[in-house]
Amino acid sequence: MIRFIIQALVTMAGLWLSAQIVPGVDFTSSGSLIAAAIILGLVNAFVRPILVVLTFPITVVTLGLFLLVVNAAMIGLTSVFLDGFRVDGLWAGIGAAIVTGVVSWIAGAFIGGGEEGRG
Fold first, then answer.
1. Are β-strands 25-27 and 85-87 bridged in parallel, bridged antiparallel, or unpaired?
2. Could you read off the pLDDT of 97-117 as tens digits, one per residue?
3. 87: phi then psi, degrees, rounded to nearest 5
4. Record's superkingdom (predicted)?
């Protein structure tokens, strides 16, 4: 449960930064930002794995770049579920996916993966 909360906070930071940097990504309130982070976490947990498996051949052909489109689709799906979160098109979704991914990567480097057996 703690891991989900930390991941939601990191995702919230990534989405907030996306709204500041990427044109076409916007929030109406901080409550919608919190809700978007939680919904995106749930969408990534349940829908994204199915899409990754279904799009595996095109992901291999594009050397993994198609995963940006999958991540953008997850962000777009989140905006469909939430009125206070707006993503205008595929390119805004890809930009938000890149920013959110970089923030998650940086946070993961500082927080650590919590691997067992490290000593």
1. antiparallel
2. 999 999 999 998 988 755 554
3. -130, 120
4. Bacteria
